Input
Amino acid sequence: MTDTINKFNYVEYILFSQHLSNSNYTNINIPLHEFERKLKLISRNKKCFEKRWTRYIHTDLVYEVYEGPPEIKTYRIVPVSVKDQIGQNENQPIIEAAYQKEKLPFFMFPSTRHMNDVVSIHSTLIRLHNHVYINFERQISKTSQIKNGSFFQKDHKIFVNCNKDEYADKDNINKIVEDAIKMLCC
Output
């Protein structure tokens, strides 16, 4: 974990339920009852806040439009490393996904209707540090809805994310991330 946080500027530690047999695909959707149980348990002692936004994905570019106070984020995200890790409890597997995230001006996102995905997200976040958050995301893929008629792809995702800049205290961030993973593996 230490090497990853030191090398990349954005890392997610994603909880998941199971590997799908005979496939490289991993289902990161957490069952609703487990999602709600963990959220209730963690939020009991931590202050939470909520955000809603829509994420538009076109190749390696991401454009996010936030509800509430108007905010738009545009960035290029390049997946660099994805590997399985076992959490503190062997019943709770975790995937480590590391990225290089590059902020871009909003006009860099192309004017196109050909999106890889459009996702509505409602997230409950717990700030542990300026650079570390626990995320409980409810996602609805609009692309799946369009392709499959009335079918909604609803996912519940739990992860710890670390946004790091070059001046961040990496040892402290590593400890906070490890503690967060221990909390989520209960």
